[in-house]
Amino acid sequence: MSRIQQTFDALKAQGKKALIPFITAGDPHPALTVTLLHTLVEAGADVIELGVPFSDPMADGPTIQRASERALAKGVSLRQVLAMVSEFREKDGETPIVLMGYANPIEAMGMEAFVAAAAEAGVDGVLVVDYTPEESAAFCAAMNARDLDTIFLLAPTSTDARINQVGQLARGYVYYVSLKGVTGSGALNFDEVAERIPKIREATGLPVGVGFGIRDAETAKRIAGMADAVVVGSRIIEEMEKYPDDAVARVKGLVADIRRGVDAASK
Amino acid sequence: MSYNLPDASGHFGPYGGIFVSETLIAALEELKAAYAHACTDPAFQAEFDYELKHYVGRPSPIYHAKRWSELLGGAQIYLKREDLNHTGAHKVNNCIGQALLAKRMGKPRVIAETGAGQHGVATATVAARYGFECVVYMGSEDVKRQAANVYRMKLLGATVVPVESGSKTLKDALNEAMRDWVTNIENTFYIIGTVAGPHPYPMMVRDFQTVIGKEALVQMPEMAGRQPDAVIAAVGGGSNAMGIFHPYIPHESVKLIGVEAAGEGMDTNRHSASLQKGRPGVLHGNRTYLLQDENGQITETHSISAGLDYPGVGPEHAWLKDSGRAEYVGISDSEALQAFHDLCRFEGIIPALESSHALAYAAKLAPSLAKDKILLVNLSGRGDKDMHTVAEKSGIQF
């Protein structure tokens, strides 16, 4: 059983929902990433999505684009991101890490080589934003062979057939993009989320995380009332941009606050 | 050679396909269905042909550049005059096609990316023609370099949005247009300007541009008594080249030669020769040859011609290269400039800097061939837009 599945099972047994914060590896500084990962755990993260910086982050809004640019300016490569995960694993053998990024850095490293190195580093799941189910057969096979979970996105525009197709391949959890747009944009449509989540859960048999547009404890609480996990990314990066000298403490405070929101819904 | 690519899922061998976030899938499905329907509807083709004839001014002539050929002392050079189209380049063929599709799909808003501004101007033109709201994304570096085209787009009623992310050039404009599309899927049609992007774009843009090659197939026997020995076209994203190559693919005696921008030299980092110097990877929705570093980050490119300054290339070119059906060569900034000046002086035609790359390769090749050999060059656009760049290179300020 994968560490991600164990985590969701344990939370379910306690009647709790998962909090999944996202940060971009190497932002604001490569030396800070491992510290930030531990901080996220201390603040209440159940799973962490760690962004792999890419020069052309087509599905990301301005906040995560800036994070990616800052990390690339410091020369952060996929190999370095894996090294950060290894370092995190020296002190934390529990918290699942999901890498989130784009196909090209993985293909440049070589798909098989990447999957082997990710397993070695202690990565638990990978979400490749631009790998559609149609184009992921080889990747999923390589991931499954190493018992790593391949996470997929679903959108408000995904058809039932599409949800079933993703359900065939997805493992760990499914990431429901709660609005039409890029990361960090606009307002959530709670009614739509409430309607879609049960369908997705049923069709895929997997826990459903919701992200894109969750900004505070209140929205986290409402989403946690419907979904199995709440994903928060751009808001955390904004906090670090706003308080560069106090980034770690600020992130801890923000994530702990969102954690309270998530737990308020769970009870 | 039988040729029936892409396959149903948009692949040209290992290239092409659909590599986008799930959030775009529904829009691509809708587009695929609408395009498939339009392809089987004679009324759509009739309307497309009518617009190409009466609005664009097709067919574009083929011109025998006799004086230049004579001076070069070898093969005869013929020019397919896409520079004579309305808006001055081949780009408009595709924009008309996609605009007609947008109209059928009931989308009131169109968006586009642009580098030098040619595709932006063509999109703004068709948006004015059909009454669409139009937003054009353009890297902020390009906005500075191409002030005249920015003004043209504004005159035509388009909103030009400068893109500040990444390298602030064409690839970033494309990223930003994708982000707009994913946010405004219901009312927006994304008019991609080249044979790249996720399926069905590489196929659809190619289909709209094949009017160039189809006309040439008819015109060459009339003009020269036979088909050419080689067809030569510049390749950035590759739409003008695909447009003229595609109908010639089954004609195996006709060589197909794509000319990439070698910039300051193929051995420098200052070029845009994705097919010759890149490695296969995934960008902008498809798998193709990309200029990238060892970590898979897309690298910045260079060419004197903004229209060729792109780190990827259409996936069908990747396939034509691997299969050996087309050959790809490089022409440097200075060689392209020489051809630009030569065509001005010897034929009275001011070519676009993009097209000047194809002309330069023809000029290189012609002297080594017998005088009865025939080279057909796609003169994909006119050079009025390049006045500033060329003048600056000659040390002239307006």
TrEMBL record, chain A:
Pathway(s) the chain acts in: Amino-acid biosynthesis; L-tryptophan biosynthesis; L-tryptophan from chorismate: step 5/5
Catalytic activity: (1S,2R)-1-C-(indol-3-yl)glycerol 3-phosphate + L-serine = D-glyceraldehyde 3-phosphate + L-tryptophan + H2O
Keyword Amino-acid biosynthesis included in the entry's annotation: yes
Gene3D superfamilies from the UniProt entry: Aldolase class I (3.20.20.70)
EC number: 4.2.1.20
Keyword line: Amino-acid biosynthesis, Aromatic amino acid biosynthesis, Lyase, Tryptophan biosynthesis
First-level EC class: lyase
InterPro entries (alphabetical): Aldolase_TIM, RibuloseP-bd_barrel, Trp_synthase_alpha_AS, Trp_synthase_suA
SUPFAM superfamilies the record matches: Ribulose-phoshate binding barrel
Keyword ATP-binding: no
Residues at the active site: 49, 60
Subunit structure: Tetramer of two alpha and two beta chains.
Family note: Belongs to the TrpA family.
Stated role: The alpha subunit is responsible for the aldol cleavage of indoleglycerol phosphate to indole and glyceraldehyde 3-phosphate.
Protein name: Tryptophan synthase alpha chain
Taxonomy of the source species: Bacteria, Pseudomonadati, Pseudomonadota, Betaproteobacteria, Rhodocyclales
Gene: trpA
TrEMBL record, chain B:
Cofactor(s) of this protein: pyridoxal 5'-phosphate
Stretches of the chain forming a coiled coil according to its record: none
N6-(pyridoxal phosphate)lysine PTM sites in chain numbering: 91
Pathway given in the UniProt record: Amino-acid biosynthesis; L-tryptophan biosynthesis; L-tryptophan from chorismate: step 5/5
Limits of the Tryptophan synthase beta chain-like PALP domain: 57-379
Listed InterPro entries: Trp_synth_b_CS, Trp_synth_beta, Trp_synth_beta/beta-like, TrpB-like_PALP, TrpB-like_PALP_sf
Keyword annotations of the record: Amino-acid biosynthesis, Aromatic amino acid biosynthesis, Lyase, Pyridoxal phosphate, Tryptophan biosynthesis
Molecular function via GO: tryptophan synthase activity
Signal peptide coordinates: none
Quaternary state and interactors: Tetramer of two alpha and two beta chains.
Functional description taken from the UniProt entry: The beta subunit is responsible for the synthesis of L-tryptophan from indole and L-serine.
Name this protein carries in UniProt: Tryptophan synthase beta chain
